[in-house]
Protein 1
Amino acid sequence: MPNSVLPFYCIGKVYLVTKQPNEAKSNFEKAIKLNSNFALAYSGLGEVMTAQGNKKKAKDYFQQAALIGMARTNTETTNSVLPTNSSVSNLNNGQNNSPSVPTTPTQQLSPFELELKKARSLTSRKKWQDSLNVLMPLTKSSQTTNLYIAIGDNYSGMKQWLSAQQAYRKAVDLNPNSAAAFYKLGTVMFEVNEFQTAAEAFEKSLILDQNGTTINRLEVRKMADKANERARELKSGKKRKFLGIGFN
């Protein structure tokens, strides 16, 4: 995966743990070269500088990581993240487990947020197409990760996996640091037997949300292990019949 930040970030973390900061620094820098908005790599560089005793540079890198994270948070509405008590089965069934908007008065919501809230309510009642009828016009004026995650959730509910995959990939493109988007993309790829791609998406989700803020890490870990196992079985020829759909 020479064009993915994931291997370089993981290698950098291993070098950090094994007290090889120069090698760690090189890999974090490669990750940033591929994606200049990958906050975790900046945080990794901060750890490298800390290990090397350069507190000033460490502070600069940590601040950069925080700024990227803050910018991401400010562009997303907080009520769309996947709650930690949700399950993979609920997602695969298309159910919307997003918490209701806390105490925010309706009059303070923007027109976009009101429409998104309306669509989520329809999704929770399994009115997939009605929800899509609300969501799709919003794409003409707004391009947010949460919007495309919501679109993908409805296509998943209708088991239209290709459309769901396209929506989740768009969500990932808009915010490469969204653990929820990678998680949901992984579930769709698992459904169509693209197990290697699913495993990579699950692993990326786990790396992006190491505290389990937006995903249930235990469930995602189980799904990642299961996807990796299926991918190995296919590669070794244990599974002769492949019913998946290939995506570029």
Protein 2
Amino acid sequence: MSSADPVPSARPHLGRVTSFDPRRGLGLVTEADGDQFEFHATAIADGSRVIAAGTAVCFSVVAGRGGRYEARALTALASPPAA
């Protein structure tokens, strides 16, 4: 995550899955401005628990464990987010 911590909001966030480890169920999504958020496989909205790195997604940001923010409700987009 960048130095200016974002505040969770109702607005949808757009980004791209930059990594996902299906064995551990952990991934990372990055917004165009560089903010990064971790997520767990249970945060994938369609229930598949699998998402490919490089997938453009819409997601929400919530307060997670340890005072960090994390991505939730990841939904794959048909087209990539605007840069």
